[in-house]
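Lab notebook: predicted structure, single chain.

Context: the supervisor wants predicted structures on file for every construct in the current expression panel, including those that have not yet been purified. This is the next one on the list. No modifications to the sequence; it matches the entry in the shared construct table.
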Amino acid sequence: MSFIQKVLKSVLPQRWAESMEANSRAWMVRCSCGFAQSVWDRGGIRWKAAGQPRRYMQCPQCGQWSWHTVTRDPSVAPSDQG
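Prediction complete. Output recorded below exactly as produced.
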């Protein structure tokens, strides 16, 4: 867990922290090599978000720096949206 994730989980009410984590796990960061990992597992937070941004980062699988797309994984449906 990243520093900012730890801080927010300790400060926010438990229900909000659980919602934040569930929403962040539903967003996937994808490399052109096919590797995908949730925003939460990458150390980030994407809570109550919309859109499909791109992030320039290094892929943990192929090691290349490239633009990664951030999309919501339809197979992961957070139970608590608020």
